Amino acid sequence: MASRVCTTACANSNRFDYTPHMRTLIIITTILLLTVGCQLLDGEADTMADATVAPVQPTPVDGETEEVIPEATEPLAPINSQTTLTLWTIPELAPDPELPGGTLLLEQLNAFDQAYPEVELRVERKTVSEQGGSLSYLRTGRTVAPSVLPDVILLPSNHLAEAVTSGLVYPLEDYLSPEDVDDLYPVARMLAEVDGELFGYPFALNGLHHFVYNRAAITNTLPSAWQGLLEVSNGRLIFPAAGPAGAELTLRFYLEAGGTLHNESGQPALELEPLVLALQQIELGVAAGLVAPQSGSTVSMEQAWQLFQNETPTIIQTSAAAFLRRQPDTNVADYGFVPLAGFEGPLPPFVSAWMWIITTPDPAQQALAAELITSLVSAPSLGTYTLESRLIPGRRNALDSWPEDDLYVTFLRRQLAVARPLPAGVTNAHLLALSDATIDVILGLNTSRDAAEEAIAFLSTS
């Protein structure tokens, strides 16, 4: 019998017809899922930190962390199939024609499906949250209802270590070719490894903040150090200080100043002097006229971009994901791109990742799951998909499918070569405290020291 890519939405497709037998299996499966789902979802929150915000953005997302919350879905039951392979993805990265790249992803899944006619490929979409979610569902479901668990899952990199420690995921490296492994950017490989062993393959990288400037207003390359930016006569920086990504610049200054993210008890914390020094840089930027006052009330990358396009700002702090989403309607030659500026020079970008992970303990299913993963992350497949969906691939050769003469692609290659993993200790509480402190300094509501003290107090009680 021919195989089929089966999604939770395929009941509306002309490709599949319900039969009485199929309806019976769906009802049984649904009852099982609802019973297990009610037990597992009780008390689960629907928030997220990042590489961390909710809902997850398709690139993550601009500085965000995440986890998948199971839903009581109605996957179609296989009919007369010898093997079922189940894949969990997220709504933003799904084989959905309504999504950027969704049709291409569906074609890639269908290609795998046709290559394995004995396999029923089921694709289910799950939403995302910081607490509970997929890891607790996998942990509990192993003993309660293993038949409804996935064989392959799209997992955020910040939860990989916990998944490995809990024995919920399995090594992938032995199933990969040396070329697939060696082609990973160093940061992608670091994100996918636990104790030197590769457990996942990065599908899309998130984060990668940088500056974009208007070449018509600023004809020279921007300085790479913050002090130099303060001296650019017509430099005017806009960034979304009031939104989830607003803490990025202050966080980078704080970490560069030697700040840590946890106290001796392992609780989220901030240190006073490094934070004061970080906020003083924002304060200096406001005093020099570099930081636009609108930054203190700007919530999103989209809002910041509108101000950058229509008003006086000549520089914007954005992310690769946000810029790529606008690139089809943007003349790249009009802009320059530089890394975030640090105390003495450019800061390497922080990134996190969405990665494909094997979650089945069955060796035969693991081999089949690995075949699916390798088909999706081959350089041509990943390159064409990330180009169309405006995501950042984790492997070098995937960018060969992107335009060679694109200045932004050249910039991305350089940044990905020096990128570092987003520190694992960054939480939503850190980002909220840093964002509030940054807003207070920009709007003149607090001095850098007072804002730092309030941020530390807030974090100690959150």
Summarize this structure briefly.
The protein has 462 residues and is α/β, with parallel strands linked by helices.
Describe the structure.
With 462 residues, the protein is α/β, with parallel strands linked by helices. The protein has 16 helices and 15 strands. Strands 1, 3, 4, 6, 9, 14 and 15 form a seven-stranded mixed beta sheet that branches. A four-stranded mixed beta sheet has the order 11-12-10-13. The protein has a two-stranded antiparallel sheet with strand order 2-5. Helix 2 (102-115) links the parallel strand 3 and strand 4. The radius of gyration is 23 Å and the shape is globular. The protein starts with a strand and ends with a helix.
How is the biggest beta sheet arranged? Answer: 7 strands, mixed
Beta strand %: 5-15%
| Span of the ends, CA to CA | 56 Å
- Our count of helices gives 16
Residue stretches low in confidence (pLDDT < 50, at least 5 long) are 9-81
Which shape, going by the Cα principal axes? globular
Any idea what the radius of gyration is? 23 Å
Q: What structural class results from the helix and strand content? A: alpha/beta
Number of strands: 15
Please, what is the average pLDDT?
A: 83
What is the helix fraction of residues, given as a range?
25-40%
